[in-house]
Design brief:
Length: 325
């Protein structure tokens, strides 16, 4: 019998991992709030664009609505497929206690998220994962109409990474289910990748959610400087080097990537950025503020991060952009 996996978060990330864990032989359950339970029990329509546009059903999983139901079963793994701000809630401790000795897999990019989990869990129960796929509710706004479903796509040669006790087995289970995955330095890669991505996302939001806007002054330059600061701060926090990601923290390469990304992705990646990062806007803000606080505490430069954080706040006030909680 396969591992019993409980997933917190039935959104895009939780759906993709749940589908491939189930295909790899795991018994999957979702812990959701009662108001979402009926909708989740209906199952999900999903399309893996790496295999083609065909939409398939994902169902046959458990749906749990409270911790009494969680405690009534034995779980081997708990997957936290949620944002960094959601991780801060007072639900975390009771939920971790309810799954007994299950290993816990987290993906959030927050600088202090690992320490938060470490306050509840011993090291032998904690794993870090790096998400390398993009997933969205299709069709995206502006795309041809069609049945609603979750679409997802993984860039070539970009396996999902897992680090920690049992990481190799988890990666093997996902590969058996058809998703590229391997054991690797997920924590450092998450920190480095977020240091490059999230400043660029913040600048893109300020520039009106277009790559052309991101390439214009002052946004590419500011994003590049902020990314370099964030990368130095994250590396100092983890006690590791910046690795090859250091070459990406510059305005020139950000401009190049903004040209190349639409040519590689088989979907409207510009619109995806707007839809997805609006939804997790609070996570972007939290990341900027966390780097600033950490950098100030370490005596590292944070001027560009502060400028970007202030610009993002002004942009949201000017447009009355709602930020997901």
């Amino acid at each position: 019998m396969g591992e019993r996996v409980l997933i917190v978060g039935a959104g895009a990330v939780g759906q993709v991992y749940g589908r491939h864990l189930q295909r790899g032989g795991a018994s999957v359950g979702y812990l959701v709030r009662p108001r979402y339970a009926a909708r989740v029990r209906e199952g999900f329509a999903m399309a893996n664009l790496n295999r083609g546009p065909a939409v398939e059903r994902f169902e046959g999983f458990e749906v749990l609505e409270d911790l009494d139901a969680v405690r009534a079963s034995a779980w081997d793994q708990l997957w936290l497929c949620i944002s960094s701000p959601a991780l801060q809630g007072d639900w975390l401790g009771p939920t971790l206690a309810a799954v007994g000795s299950a290993r816990v897999v987290s993906f959030t990019p927050g600088l202090r998220d690992g320490e938060l989990l470490g306050s509840y869990l011993p090291a032998e129960r904690r794993l870090k994962g790096l998400i390398t796929f993009s997933a969205w509710e299709a069709p995206l706004p502006g795309a041809p109409s069609g049945p609603a479903h979750l679409a997802y796509w993984s860039p070539p040669l970009s396996p999902n990474l897992f680090e920690g006790p049992g990481a190799a087995e988890i990666a093997a289970q996902l590969r058996a289910g058809g998703l590229s995955a391997r054991q690797g330095p997920a924590e450092a890669m998450t920190a480095r990748g977020s240091s490059i991505l999230l400043p660029a996302v913040a600048a893109m939001e300020c520039a009106g959610w277009t790559f052309a806007g991101l390439r214009s002054a002052p946004w590419a330059g500011l994003a590049g400087r902020a990314a370099a600061e964030a990368l130095a701060i994250s590396s100092a926090h983890l006690g590791v080097g910046s690795g090859p990601m250091g070459i990406l923290a510059g305005a020139g390469l950000l401009r190049l990537l903004s040209h190349a990304a639409p040519l590689v992705a088989p979907f409207d990646i510009e619109r995806f950025f707007e839809v997805h990062f609006r939804k997790v806007g609070q996570q972007t803000s939290l990341a900027l503020k966390s780097w600033i606080a950490e950098g100030q505490g370490r005596g590292l430069p944070v001027q560009a991060l502060q400028e970007l954080d202030e610009a993002l706040t002004r942009s949201r006030h000017a447009t009355d952009t709602p930020v997901s909680k």
